[in-house]
Amino acid sequence: MIxxxxxxxxxxxxxxxxxxxxxxxxxxxGQIAMMHRDLVAERKWIDEPRYxxxxxxxxxxxxPEAQQLATYIGxxxxxxxxxxxxxxxxxLPSIFVLLGLSWIYAAHGALPAVAAVLAGVKAxxxxxxxxxxxxxxxxxxxxxxxxxxxxxxxxxxxxxIAFPWIVLGAGVIGGAGAFGRGGSVEPPxxxxxxxxxxxxxxxxAEAATRGGGLRVARILTVSLLLWLTPxxxxxxLLGQGSLPAKLYLFFTQAAFVTFGGAYAxxxxxxxxxxxxxxxxxxxxxxxxxxxxxxxxxxxxxxLQFVGFMAGWQxxxxxxxxxxxAVLCALLxxxxxxxxxxxxxxxxxPYIERLRNVRALSAxxxxxxxxVTGVILHLGLTFGxxxxxxxxxxxxxxxxxxxxxxxxLVALRATKVSPALLVLAGAVLGIVGAWVWR
Length: 437
Fold this sequence. Notes:
This protein has helices spanning 10-23, 27-42, 48-59, 65-108, 112-140, 144-158, 163-181, 202-238, 243-255, 262-276, 282-293, 302-313, 321-347, 351-354, 358-387, 398-413, 418-435. By secondary structure, it is mostly helical. Helix 7 (163-181) packs antiparallel against helix 15 (358-387). It has a domain at 93-185 and 230-435. Mean pLDDT is 84; it is low at 182-200.
């Protein structure tokens, strides 16, 4: 008989989520592994089957899957309040850390010492993105169709086609193929022939599914009110066409197409915020990912940096650069994470049903294949601007090239944390500036 996990008190769980938010470096892979070690292996608050089922469910959703996984586990332990506490504390420390780093970057980024640090960080970021392409590609490109989707997505983003259309097209192709083979699959069975264990946290799921449509309507109503409040205030004070209003609406849209994680959404933001709207530069986008890598929390926090820099460089409504930057940063963060929390809290009780819908899994597989091509384009774009700052004819920046190669080798050959690599890149950037001056 499978032992039933012991549910901790809410206060005990609250302390854990608060600590996790301060130490969850390493990107989604490291964060997922950290929670597995803490919650499955050591504390035994959730069993292995439910943890894996939750991870599969979160991978179906747009947004940061590690934060969504924490939200789901918090929900299984203590219902709605547990999910909200886990999801919010997962990102809260990083909001303040990244605000501080963004301020330093905006105010002092032109200083030679800061520029040298950023040069090394940028080279590491290029390596991190290329490593992500290899990791995601190994998982996603397992068929000729998947490879074709990746190539098509690369060509599409290079041709200026918006990322949401690429995601939609890939999802339709994958979902249609699944419907052609049948719309659902049977749940996995144990050796005894019974459905896989759901662990000891079925209470919230049973209560929530009994609530049915009323529960969903209540969550959607509250979420809609929470989403409407910031733009109504901004519209009334600064105008509907103000930069904060535009950022809020843009990042809300981005929140629903961020399949593939931070690297994919950054490709979308790089395409829109850099090329289409001119809110930030390509170099700033690379710097932002480097800063996000060096903070705890999900990498999608880079969107807060984008909002900050947009507000700093084009202050809205007579605000100072600092006030405008903080306002735009917080609006970007709110628009990014509110949909993510809502989707998890609505779908959590139905995880067992959703994970067995073949069309959803097939659509996600197709989207991940397409995202691989999009992230490759992002990596090459970053690589060109960082490693060849004066164009291909001008030759590479030797110090950046050496740092990037070393970082990529370290990522492929060891289990070093990206945050540590970013720190090492910062040190090597200073050394390189001194050697090559």
